[in-house]
Amino acid sequence: MRSAQEPVITGELVKEIRNVLQSDQAPWWMAHFYLADDPPQNAPGRVGTSRRRVDIEFERGGDRGIRPRLHFEAKRLYQPGSVTAYLGEEGLALFIDGEYAVTEDIGGMIGYVQLDAPAVWIERIREGLSTARVRLGFRLPPGLVKHEPDTYPTETHKSHHDRPSVGRPIMIYHTFLQF
To answer: Mean pLDDT across the chain, nearest whole number?
Structure first.
């Protein structure tokens, strides 16, 4: 999958996650989660086919009322311009601008590492975030921070952002997967 396109990787990742969710050996709490690949998102000013499509969406069900969702936008990290795509108008900025996770306080970015090591891309993303800190509305602590505890994938970090157009901040989890 070193040269696979983003939709191919996402499709395979969703397939494997779905296999885990539907396994007879899955923990009981997994029965409350629904998974969607590329679902359209409702955002102000966008209707019908003009709606954006988040790469992966988890929805927690089982109760009536509001069902929390967790959105993930994925980007390939395979060339020098990948940092711009990851942070830009088709990447992280979709969360900041309220196109994704408008009613949520948490979202996620997935970096499909296809060139170099995850640590190299983490540093590149960290530098890009520093350069675009005003545009991306950093909250304290600023930048990309390693997420603890160790129960998360080893290359998971987080960042906190203000979202003036939404009126509430968001925390973004950044997970870097090697391909």
So the answer is: 90
